[in-house]
Design goal:
Number of helices: 10
Number of strands: 0
Strand content: under 5%
Order of helices and strands: HHHHHHHHHH
Distance between the termini: 53 Å
Low-confidence stretches: none
Structural class: mainly alpha
Helix content: over 70%
Mean pLDDT: 88
Largest sheet: none
Length: about 200
């Protein structure tokens, strides 16, 4: 049971972090007092209130855990799913689909990251660095796929670095999307893959 877990275990427990991400999304990262957050999370997840307080002594400890889990999932799942031996065009399409699906799943946490990271960078550079390095590894991996496509002669870009930034920016632009029967999430991922592959990377149809 969640109530029996240690503070270390609670820092990575899905039910706790899912609840925290939802509360931050509903109320903003600074709106609810920490005792209120802890009480709500304990009530909804079944975690022990006092153990939660030890696991997350500040609101930023809780927010950082939510963000770190989401960023780590996006990075590690991409690295695990990528097939370095496959053609670059296939790898890019797979990456875009992965990015869209994982980012939508973790949209509350990733939106929280945009608010949290500037403050965390100023207040706690070492803890910021762990998240920043994950972002760097992700960006570097995407850049390497684009470089492979350029070497294969199938991607035509003026700058690999600028193309990488453009691709990541496009894949992050999901705030407008609301799932419905006309445009399901998987269909959206396909639209983005087509946009990235043919319009941003110059792959011939």
């Amino acid at each position: 049971m969640t109530a029996d877990l240690s503070p270390d275990d609670l820092r990575t427990t899905d039910s706790v972090l899912d609840c925290a991400a939802r509360l931050f999304a509903e109320h903003g990262p600074r709106s609810l007092a920490l005792p209120t957050l802890t009480h709500r999370i304990a009530e909804e997840s079944g975690a022990d209130h006092h153990t939660l307080s030890r696991a997350f002594p500040t609101r930023w400890d809780l927010a950082r855990a939510v963000v770190l889990r989401a960023v780590r999932e996006r990075v590690e799942s991409l690295l695990a799913a990528d097939r370095p031996w496959a053609p670059a065009a296939e790898r890019v399409c797979a990456f875009v689909r992965h990015h869209v699906l994982i980012s939508w799943k973790n949209r509350s946490a990733l939106e929280l990251a945009r608010v949290l990271l500037p403050s965390l960078r100023a207040a706690d550079p070492e803890r910021y660095r762990e998240i920043a390095l994950l972002h760097r590894d992700y960006r570097d991996h995407v850049r390497a796929i684009i470089e492979d496509g350029v070497r294969e002669g199938v991607f035509h870009v003026d700058s690999v670095e600028l193309a990488t930034r453009s691709v990541l920016s496009t894949c992050d632009s999901l705030e407008w999307y609301e799932p419905d029967d006309d445009l399901r999430l998987d269909d959206l991922a396909g639209v983005y893959a087509d946009l990235v592959l043919h319009h941003q990377l110059g792959h011939p149809r």
